[in-house]
Amino acid sequence: MRTLVNLSLILALIVIVLGAYTRLTDAGLGCPDWPGCYGHLSVPMDAEKAAAAQALFPDAPLEHEKAWNEMVHRYAAGTLGLFILFIAISAVVRVRRHAETPVKLPILLLFLVIFQAALGMWTVTLNLQPLVVMGHLLGGFTTLSLLYLLRLRLKRIHLPMGDPKVRSLSSFALFALLVVIGQIALGGWVAANYAALACTDLPICEGDWQSQLDIAGAFSVPEAVTYQYGAHDYAERMTMHVAHRIGAILTLIVVGILLLRGYRMAQSAVIRTSLTWVSLTLVLQIALGLSNIVFMLPLSVAVAHNLVGALLLLSLVGLNYKLVRHA
């Protein structure tokens, strides 16, 4: 079971990267139907199938590269779903012989991945509606986090118990985790509404940006036939981008305080190693975020920003788990 969980964890990271790549290459509607592609299980390649596909979906021109980006993501996500199904079955079978085997977490993961599949379908059928796209992204990050938590539980890390200093640190670590989750949600909202390049200056935005802030509009969902390439005006997208930058500053402050307190208070080598992973991923994530602005959202940097965001989340999940066990 541990091997299957480890493989699923790696595959979940790959699915997140593929999802980011699909979104950033504007391939979210590369296949206008679900779960297949233009009525086929794979992208129609020969001339006859392509012509039939185009006749079936006349308003959705077939672009093979985008369609393959979308289908590879679906294949990987489907494989992950099967892995999680096998994990849930294995947990139910094993608990009869090993009472300590986690069961609730694998069952929760199974229900979550089923809901993720529904969100994937709605992403297509609702033409990239931003709330659905952001929910799909958060669902992917949640799946990854729960798989990592399951891995930690199966690993059975041994820590000394009853350190009151660590107990006080665990509450702030949970707060830092919630702040990072909120920042990921803001990033998902920015991405879903194509607002990543709404500001191209540092430290905030160009021109008289303060007078253009529109918080109500930025966090609404306007009516539109399709949400591909965004349905908000510039002021609303700029507001989203500013909110994400402010969130990044808040995240840096909160996680920075956590690291300072943690290194000062924790004596356990396991806890200090977790703090080091949080430090590395935080610094790298800030550097990638700045690079996205300076270099105008290069694809490789933008995809890496999603990946390192996931790793930062995992490092905090791991730290929280170990702190709770250590307290």
Any overview of this molecule?
This protein has 327 residues and is an all-alpha fold. Helix content is 71%, strand content 0%. The protein has 10 helices and no strands. The protein has helices at residues 2-24, 47-56, 64-94, 104-125, 130-155, 164-192, 215-218, 234-265, 269-294, 299-326. The longest helix has 32 residues, at 234-265. It is flat and about 65 Å long. 38% of the residues are buried.
How would you characterize the largest beta sheet?
A: none
Percent helix: over 70%
Q: Number of helical runs? A: 10
Strand content: under 5%
- Mean pLDDT comes to 92
From the alpha carbons, calculate the radius of gyration and give it in angstroms. Answer: 21 Å
Q: Which class best fits the helix and strand makeup? A: mainly alpha
The sequence of SSEs as H and E is HHHHHHHHHH
Global morphology: flat
The number of E-state strands comes to 0
Indicate the low-confidence ranges by residue numbers. none
Tell me the span between the first and last alpha carbons.
28 Å
Short synopsis of the structure:
By secondary structure, the chain is mainly alpha-helical. The protein is 71% helix and 0% strand. It has helices at residues 2-24, 47-56, 64-94, 104-125, 130-155, 164-192, 215-218, 234-265, 269-294, 299-326.
